[in-house]
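Illustration: UspA domain-containing protein.
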Amino acid sequence: MQNIHNILVVIDPELERDFVLDRALFIASQTQANVHLFINSTNTLNQRAFSYKAIGSQFFEKQRELVTQQYKNILRAAELEFSNLKINTNILFSEEHNLAEAIIKQARDCNCDLVLKSTHHKSKSHQRWVSNTDWRLIRKCSSPLLLVKAQQWYEGGSIVAAVDPMHIKADQSRLDHALIAGAENLAASLQQTAHVFHCYYPYVSSLFPSAEEVDEYLTEVRVQHTQKLDQLLASHNIDIDSVKLTQGELLPALTNYLSQIDANILIIGALSRNVIERAIIGNTAEKILDDCPCDVLILKT
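Result:
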């Protein structure tokens, strides 16, 4: 992830105050990036597939105009916040049925280096943070995607790259380096601390005849992971105290570490995979995105 010059900020007009605006204000003020404020209206009044004999088409058109005006007023109010801080800003509005595709198009048209979008609980009966739109963006948006949660950032917090050095694919190797470089660049730009996290879960068979052999095996596994992680970090400038290598289940280990170091952003990678891999890895990624106590930045090679 290189320098940030253009940011696409996807505003949810249904929220009283979208935290994505606070993130964008801070990031843009630190990077001097241009900001593109965007709302897409998926108002069903645009594509009325039903008919009321007692209500003419003018009524639905008027309602559509009122919704459009309301959303544009939200954009103008947000634009004023950025203008007051001398941040170069413009507003974008569309009426596309598919929100994810509308975001991807705007990101491409604006040549954006970063896309910001809020992700939040929909209701008490729907306790997942990640929506179908978010998943489409994770899979298809070529720009770095920051999914913002409804909470304040820690002052002087941390940015954490989650890596997997025990791989055989060159694509994963390039991605890991990109994740660490992204953490370094963002931390420098936003006055945060860059961290690197790796977790492994060794398989211990019941066929081991003695506890001593189990200990030897676990020691050997840790040495292998340590060596691979050291090789990955050799070309980067991460402080040794900001590197976490841990054994155990990924999700609790990761979320605990993020909470301990006041993490503001977790950086993870997304690779193109086949259907089976996507189903398995997607399930793990969904749990991370749901339970992560901070914003999540998704990068691609």
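Reading the tokens back as a structure: The mean pLDDT is 86.
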